[in-house]
């Protein structure tokens, strides 16, 4: 049984009865307006909030992406940086000063209790960056006050000043040249927020609402969020850029991939990400569906907390690499939808070091290394696995179970641990686990965006370097590479960094996945992003 969301009406499909669950879901989404076009995206999880600067997960970024813009953005379906709220920019010869000319006439969204009285201007840009960079900012501590992207990417030190020259001119001064700065500013953490809305909420004593009821300048405005169920957006008719081709955008939060597939087949949603590899063959044969794919700019890894014994000894970390049958994981979990990972960056990214060799699957050698490091059996460790499916990892629990079995063969008893997704990330970043599965999808197409995850700045408590590994040889190259503009010089440093990482083994690199997305055949105009996110501007239902 299914219903058609294209017209907003519930249509019977092969039955005279409408099931109670389907009816309830339809009412929840708001079945109205016969002529309206509604696209329902079966998303994989719930957002932590709607302020990207506070978050680190693709799930939360996806939920906020329809609402906001940045100064610069990635062209849809590519990593090319293009103008957005800044219509142009100039960089000084020394690379230390970037002057942004802001777009005029950009309208803010309205929400219940707030109607903007002015267009977007330089004050909004200052607010958005000052909140993350200035501890005394009135919004600095709101909603927890953790700006992990800003901190882990070194923006606190890099951003020397941000000055309003006039209402539509911003001058950004850096402490040193930074090659990926424009690509970094196109990332979600750099979204621009309404300073007027923030001031209004502060005066009314409700500043926390700022991150839960978002106001942006994007192609869709926020309507409502029912936790763990549905997010509703409406097309922004005053959007400064390409107008949306659909009237309503709905995120139907559906964590289970089997349930997402069922809803797709029933036309209860028209788009879904992260299908189970085991379902792909059937999906590709279904004439009502379209399956698209591309090599993911991603990495799935198993990280070792180097601050905890015995993982402070690289021989133990190397032993863990040799103990796991990676080929079996690729065969039984990825089912051909990925490649075994050698380096921390995927081979599709420039500067990939083809000379680096992976650790062999060698349980006997692993046992010998543990003995050499003074580890006596049985060694008790915890092995954390993600509670949700990710684009780089289709089944973290199954991988953890396979690892647990392999580790037992070398005298290591692994206790499997997981938490709710938001709690999992928080605890992992604080350095709580001994070993932990996680991964990454590149944000901007620059190697720096992967390697900062193992930089010393991100190894702080709460930082995204969950191995807490700080290697000065690696870190000095990371910092130097960011200041260079010559790709050949940067490539040389990144190749050296990959060799250092493999030898010191803060992680076991698991896989680079192929990213599949599935939609109804009626959906047109969608462009798959190499950065893993989802954008529904330009998408239509025919």
What is the total number of structural domains? 3
H/I helix tally: 17
| CATH topology grouping of the largest domain | Dipeptide-binding Protein, domain 3
- Kindly state the percentage of residues in helix: 25-40%
CATH superfamily of the largest domain: Dipeptide-binding Protein, Domain 3
Strand content of the residues, in percent? 15-25%
Q: Please outline the major beta sheet.
A: 12 strands, mixed
Q: How much is the radius of gyration in Å?
A: 24 Å
- Mean pLDDT level: 93
| pLDDT < 50 runs, ≥5 residues | 1-27, 29-34
Q: What distance separates the N and C termini?
A: 21 Å
Q: Mind explaining what this structure looks like?
A:
This protein is α+β, with helices and mostly antiparallel strands and about 550 residues long. It has three domains: about 1-65 and about 220-270 and about 520-540, Periplasmic binding protein-like II (D-Maltodextrin-Binding Protein, domain 2, 3-Layer(aba) Sandwich), CATH 3.40.190; about 70-210, Dipeptide-binding Protein, domain 1; about 300-515, Roll (Dipeptide-binding Protein, domain 3), CATH 3.10.105.10. About 30% of the residues lie in helices and about 20% in strands. It contains 17 helices and 20 strands. Strand 2 and strand 3 (about 80-85) form a beta hairpin. Residues about 1-25 and about 30-35 have low confidence and may be disordered.
Please sum up the structure shown.
With 542 residues, the protein is of the alpha+beta class. The protein contains 17 helices and 20 strands. Helix 13 links the parallel strand 15 and strand 16.
